Amino acid sequence: MKPARFSNYAVKEKKNEKERSQLTQPISLKVPEELDHHLFFPEKETILEKERYAGWSETIPFEAFPYELLYYNNVEAYAPWTKGAMHVKELLERWKGIDSECSLLFSERKAGQTLGLVKQGIGLFLTAVFWMHGKPVVLNDFRFHIQSFNNIPVNMDERLSFILARPAFFILIDSLVSCSGNLKNNM
What pTM value is reported for the model? Predict the structure, then answer.
């Protein structure tokens, strides 16, 4: 009888192990129309580990809009924009680090090495603006959505369109973030 109990335990343990491994398996998601933008999603599909986004994490790469990807694909996950004020300050702190790194690279005439950081910076800024207003990020028609937001810099929709078309003009996103000191102050 004892060997039978052991084998039942082994079977249960193997089943639990299989379930745990399935929890962390990556899932393939289509890039939804709301996030369709060549700068952030050159491919029409992307892969995420769903469980990583069940809650808030400081280590999330925001330039890829993971929470929004899950939301627009109807996958249950944490919705940080519902608690925007809580997260925007952290996003803007991350911005300061990216800004410093980019400034250093530009001063060393290594502008070609900045695209990844520039994308992160633009993604953080867009995320902060949308989340501050309690909304998930929308890239494909952001100008329409941003027009209804309050406490944003003048002509922000036009300036963002220019920056998204020419990410090398990173200094302009820095200017927008500076103008948006209101993001932190008006929450």
Answer: 0.76
